[in-house]
Amino acid sequence: MNDDEERSVDAAVEGELRLLDPAVRALPHMVSELLDPEFFEFGASGARYDRTTILSAIAPSPIERVTATGISELSGKLLAPGLVQVTYVSDESGRLARRSSLWRRTAEGWRLYFHQGTLISTE
């Protein structure tokens, strides 16, 4: 991986970790800076969310989410110039999910375009 590719992966991973920071999640304007205008998510519950839904949910009080201390297997991969996939396993009080995010470079910087969480069966 060349330096530019490595910087791209690092920027996307850093953005993902910022979104997992409770201090960032408590401030809708900070979350807004990290979400692409076209952002959407398929949650581990199967529900579909868009940027407006996410920002509305955290406006009155921060939604409980995964924090950086509850993740493992964190990795990033450059898929194409300006597009990075970040994957990890989240642990929310014993509820494990595989998570995948797509980050794309925009004129404003790296923004989260897509996120999906899939529950891991513990049976």
TrEMBL record:
Top-level taxon: Bacteria
Using the record's annotation, list all stretches that form the DUF4440 domain: 17-112
Official protein name in the record = DUF4440 domain-containing protein
| Species | Streptomyces maoxianensis
Instruction: Specify the taxonomic lineage.
Output: Bacteria, Bacillati, Actinomycetota, Actinomycetes, Kitasatosporales
